[in-house]
Amino acid sequence: MEFSFEMCYKFGDIWLSDDDKACALILYPQKKCVSLKLSLLRIRLLLTAITSSDYKSRQYHLAAMEKMRPNLDMALIWYIGVDPNYQNRGIGTRLITQVLQRIKSCSLPVYLELSAYQYLGWFERFGFEGYEVYDCADYKFVNFFLKNDLK
User: Fold this and answer.
1) Domain ranges within the chain, ordered by starting residue
2) Burial track 123-136 (b if 16+ CB lie within 10 A, e otherwise)
3) What is the topology classification, in CATH, of domain 2-148?
């Protein structure tokens, strides 16, 4: 999670709900560039990974996800979450609505990679549509790729 936070801090936006019960990490992949900071983040990920195979799995996952994304300017919702004690109270809905309004003002499409199937319907309520499914049985994950052109 630290890697994701740092990436969005450097190359995106970090959103908190008004009550600090929800957070969204937004990445603008087009802003990423090869830099000392990015290299240090990857080294830190390597050093904090449980095993070298865990690091390899994470890097494989990141590389696979990047290949599935179209090569265009976009906003990528990397994470959005609500404190479990405060879920189902509309906090996440309010946060994603604010995030989408802000991104729409920048005239960017929004992309999302989802590994939790049970939230697919929730994102569809906000206009997201699936464009790809990636099943990687070797690494035990399935990702759903969603987009919203914010028309």
Assistant:
1) 2-148
2) beebebeeeeebee
3) Aminopeptidase (3.40.630)
